[in-house]
Amino acid sequence: MAARGEFSSRTAFVLAAAGSAIGLGNIWGFPIQVASNGGGAFVFTYIVLTFLLAYPILMAELIIGRHAKTDTVSSILAVSSPGTRWLAYLTGYWGMLTASLILSFYSIIAGWMIAYFIGGFAELLGLVDVKAWLTEFSLSRNIIFCFVFYSLTISIVASGVSGGIERWSTRLMPALLLLMVLLIAYIATQDGAAEGWRVYLQPDFSRVLNPDLVINALSQAFFSLSLGVGTMMIYGSYVSKSENIAKLGASVAALDIGVAVLAGLLVIPAMYVALHNGVTIYDDAGNLIASDNLIFTVLPALFETMGSAGPVVAILFFSLMTIAALTSSISMLEVPVAYASESKNMPRAKAAWVVGGLVLLISLVIVFNFGTLFPLVIAFTTKYSEPLIGLLFCVFVGWIWHRNHILDEIKQGYPDAENGLFWKIWPTYVKFVCPLLVLALFWHSMS
Ligand code: TRP
To answer: What would be the CATH architecture of the domain defined by 10-446?
Structure first.
């Protein structure tokens, strides 16, 4: 068997894992949640929950992955006991299925981002009909751009860990940050932006503990850190044993939060600029209208009001979205591809095209039954599967895998782990606090 891939440096891992974490969830999902959940109050609760709940689960995944250094199904098996092998299989396969299903709906949205990106050029060239086709919902557009997005995702994954995932994450992530800062600066100069900054940065503390807000912040934190499907486990499996894994995980969580907060500084002020320019964003009752359509209705409407700068800003914005989506989609596809290549001995490039092709078929089924399947798949994966699988990861780390073996694993690359803060808090945390919190979340979202 060919040598296993590994990230070539600490920075490469952090950029790839942050690339996975930072995606449509940050730039699209987070600002929408902020706008519909009391502005800064949501930001505050989200940050607290990411550190209290999401970071410990992220660490559970990274540590299992780096310990076993294989695909996710085999990794969980490696930390199971003879009596819990069935549970390891269940967790591994369910995670792989969930990763594939998340990819299947994510790629449809990512395809729209590419279409809107090209739409900006069509507008610059005065191609009105082309632009209309690119930016209006249709079967043909959805199918074509889904294909385009899959080709990009599959090509990168087919090229392997260092030649594909690492190479593209380290190129695209700095570009993403640059684009974002440029856009924030530009929007900040527009009339109306100041009101957006105010709403965003002034938490209404009376809403911080609102149960719905807490639940939404928790699911958002899960999705945003790519937890509960094995993505972080497989990326962890490509980390060298000489790295301090607790520190790497903290950098990834911090970057993910940082970019979500930055995305808020872009999208929320942009909404208020749109409002200033006459675009309707809140209904009479004060609720955000068409919250899911924020990116595809409010922002394009805003770009229209910006005159000749409009198409350029649109191109920059949608290239930002496409980049963010791509560094995330490769991390989803990597989960089943690593399994096909390591457990089923398929050559990696073939595995990427075969598995990617199968997931594309699922996307097409969704595209043809959009109204029913799209929301259903999103709910099944993000609302139910991710938290429950995250809970199972905690069960393996907290209750099944031997505590001393975990410590031995962490000590590689962090010899003094035993005396550090991480080891004092984290084991108890994943054992009791995380499972209970996830159960509470789950209970609430079911009722
Ligand atoms: N975290 C990414 C985002 O915020 C999406 C993502 C990538 C993901 N890999 C994942 C979500 C695995 C859940 C599971 O957009």
So the answer is: Up-down Bundle (1.20)
